[in-house]
Amino acid sequence: MSTGGWTNKNIDSLLTATGNNVYRPTLTGLGERVHLASSNITLNTHILDVVNVILYENLNDLVLVGHSYGGMVVTGVADSIPERIKKLIYIDAFLPEDGESVISITGTPVDSSLKIEKGLFYHDWIFAEQDPPKDVPHPVLTFIDDIRLNNPQRLEIPTTYILTVEKGKNPEDDDFFVHAERARKKGWPVLQLEADHTPERSAPEELVKMLQEIVTN
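The structure assignment produced for this chain is given below.
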């Protein structure tokens, strides 16, 4: 959400050092693709961003990882091309059902209480005077669009959910606990990582260790 592939640079380095091939695509309008930001970017745009990386790089038997809003994206990708995906991992991420959106899941109304300009949502931690790399405004339609899931093969992909919980906090108070519970009800393993919502920045070594354990098991 509001970030780009750059935020996973440390994760990339750590995984590559152990012999993994890593792709960290940036979604349209975010990160180094911020110059493409517009009010016309939809959830499907972002799903196709990742689908096309997989198709044009001719990737198979891959481990697909989605973090935060990225859970919406990887769910759509898994529904589109499940045959390409060996394992699916959600990290403190949305786990939507058919017909849901970020807005419908969170119950947040799209109204004047949100800072929206030219179809882009500005989080309160985003400041124009910051130099790159940085988080940027996020296309609003990607939060509003309902996801459409039609392929039951998606549910056959071995999937793991990682819930990040800050030290001393109750997991049940975490914003993404409800999604971890959804995963649990589907019979998927749910792991807990002591970290804030952005473990790729705050706990990269611990996150990579957990990812490698999931991949090798």
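Interim note for the steering committee: The chain has eight helices and seven strands. Residues 5-216 form a domain with the Rossmann fold fold (CATH 3.40.50.1820).
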